Amino acid sequence: MPPTDPSEGPGTGPGPDHPGSRTTGLAGPGVADAAPAGAGPPTDNETTLELQLSEEFIELIDHGAPEPAAITAGRGPAGAIGPGSDLLDSLADWGPADTGAGTFQLVPVRVERDLRLITRWMNDPAVAAFWKLGGPESVTEAHLRAQTGGDGRSIPCLGVLDGVPMSYWEVYRADLDSLARHYPARPHDTGIHLLIGKVADRGRGVGTRLLRTVADLVLDHRPSCARVVAEPDLRNTPCVSAFLSAGFRLTAEIDLPDKRAALVVRDRALRTLL
């Protein structure tokens, strides 16, 4: 199976028993130069530049992008993650990491800030086919609030690359999740779900780098965790292939309530070998 970026497909979505399961992130601003049709050259005393603002950029203006301080510190505002967040060893404090494709950081989601764009991403037909969270904002909001208001066993995050939110992640305690009923879970197993937000960011070879980076962040900051797990839909071949290219190994095919999944594992003991 050739290496493939998971961003070429919809990414991994939560199973129906995952906290709040029924919805990611904030797409980065896009600015493009465009010359008006039929416009002549600028006059000697005037230079005209027309900017086309993406819908994502307009919404960032309306609702506010992640604050630079939050991105720098890796911490959302108070209350951004639920009580008991130590279940994931203070994920908000993990800080940035170099991916080879830019500086990446996980920033916990703020529902009020991120809801519109998360909903838009979830309604991309390619995404909805696997995440099954298409529909109105209320569907997305219920999914997010179940995690941000929960006990901290699952934390939804923006994936911020070079200061631009461009992906959505859920980092969760797989050993405390319903997934543990379907495989021989070990204490502190940590699971990940991901979604590359904008179509323009898919297929650029970034997804595999981000998967490896996030798995390394988990292993670096969760010393009790011996392995990172994921369960992409077997039908999502590009995503499964990307996990394998990122150093995960296929350990089993498992039947979950909503899909037949590939159980993939990134082992601490093998992280330098794969």
TrEMBL record:
Biased composition (Low complexity): 29-42
Region (Disordered): 1-46
Superkingdom of the organism of origin: Bacteria
Pathway(s) served: Siderophore biosynthesis; mycobactin biosynthesis
Domain Acyltransferase MbtK/IucB-like conserved per the UniProt entry, residue ranges: 107-155
Role, per record: Acyltransferase required for the direct transfer of medium- to long-chain fatty acyl moieties from a carrier protein (MbtL) on to the epsilon-amino group of lysine residue in the mycobactin core.
Protein name, as recorded: Lysine N-acyltransferase MbtK
Species name: Streptomyces hiroshimensis
